[in-house]
Amino acid sequence: MRILLSTYGSRGDVEPLAALGAALQANGLEARVSAPGDAEFAALLTRAGVPLAPAFAPVREWAKEMVNRSRSASPEDRAKLISGQAAEIAARQYEALSAAAEGCDAVVAFGLFPSCAAARLVAEQRGMRYMLGTFCPIWLPSQHNRPHEYPGHPLPDGMTDNRLLWETDIRTKNALFGEAVNGQRASLRLPPVQNVRDYVYGNPVLLACDPTLGPWPDSDLIGAVQTGAFILPDERPLPDGLNAFLDAGPPPVYVGFGSISVASETGSAAIEAIRARGLRAVVAQGWAGLDLVDDRDDCFAIGEVNQQALFGRVAAVVHHGGAGTTVAAARAGAPQLIVPQIGDQPYWARRAAELGIGAAHDGPMPTGQSLSAALEVALAPKVLARARAFAGKVRANGADAAAKWLADRMR
Fold first, then answer.
1. Are the beta carbons of 343 and 261 closer than 8 angstroms?
2. Per the confidence metrics, is the pTM higher than 0.90?
């Protein structure tokens, strides 16, 4: 049996599927991952031993263009931009996934909604089993949480009943993505669907996050199979220069925002806050291209490295709140300071603060002063003690649990 794992997104979307693909193969199934063909993702999947079937386009330049185009747009124009891009993604990804699905028996789709819609349509056309996956519980309809608010489609004022709000979410997704989904269906001479959200979501959904970090209270609106986070083991050594820096003084504070295009001032503010506390810093350049502010020897810049090895050697992790970075820091027992930007990142920031394993920065635009205050919370002895105790509660076998479940479900 061969399962196609599909996503269109950043490293936080691709690396978990590399872990799941490797786990499927370890459990006697074949796996193939359709993901953006960026060189970093190709190398990642090669390391995992999972074949790559490239998605319709690399994602890094596409993401940068989308950020630039939406930065100064009004909410209404951003909604139009989302709908226009959705139509392009759905059509082009349908073609890519049609090729990737050759010889596959099932597809499990993660990532952007229109990419998942394309996967759902390919599965329907080919008579394949299909399942949607997600990395955070807030994306799923539940009486326990409100739906995500999209540009140009604010949630109704004064409405507090989450069930009613999730009904408005159906209308919102029809407005944003209905033309993309049903336009592609029309091109294939298929009838339109009236509820694109439920068509793409299906029931149940695979929830790939740690149940202690991101618990899923049972919902009567949708079912979820929560297996734990998909973690790809990483045995790569840290670079010699980084090792030397770590050995040369007390544990530094890590600063990194992954694929998020934060302002360059964010890195400067973080270094200012860290230095104000007499600490050293490791700055991950990421897609934002963060860099050092001077040539002092208390800061060290890095590219992509083994976070699993690094996070166990730092005093704290300052990051954007991506699901993967959050669970990596939690597993390492490192206190976290999360500066959330978009999507599910405010949720992970809130959870770190609620669990007492870190601090949540108030808002996406930090200053040296605001980061210094939040860093004081994250570095408190009680937070360090709580983070170290919490590390043992994070599951490391989510990918294996999901692989076993899918092996039974998809046959």
1. no
2. yes
**pLDDT (average), residues 243-272:** 90
Residue 341 · residue 365 · CB < 8 Å: no
Q: Which tokens hold the place of 262?
A: 């934060």
For 393, which DSSP code?
A: T
The CATH topology of domain 240-391 is Rossmann fold (3.40.50)
Residues in the chain: 411
Task: Please say if the pLDDT value at position 364 is more than 90.
Answer: no
Is the previous residue joined to 250 through a cis bond, with omega within 30 degrees of 0?
A: no
Instruction: Please report, as a single letter, which amino acid is at residue 121.
Output: L
Fold of the CATH domain 2-231+396-409? Rossmann fold (3.40.50)
The per-residue b/e assignment along 167-184, b for 16 or more CB within 10 angstroms, e otherwise, is eebbebbbbbbbbbbbeb
Beta strands 336-338 and 2-6, pairing class: unpaired
What are the residue ranges spanned by the domains of the chain? Answer: 2-231+396-409, 240-391
Which residues 6+ apart lie within 8 Å of 201 measured at CB? Answer: 132, 140, 141, 222
Same fold: 2-231+396-409 with 240-391? yes
Query: What integer pLDDT is reported at residue 287 of this predicted model?
Result: 83
Q: Annotate 93-140 with DSSP letters as a single string.
A: HHHHHHHHTTT-SEEEE-SSHHHHHHHHHHHHHHT-EEEEEES-GGGS
State the number of CA atoms in the 13 A half-sphere of 59 facing the CB: 25
For 231, the 3-state DSSP assignment is: coil
Other residues' Cβ atoms within 10 Å of the Cβ of residue 16 = 27
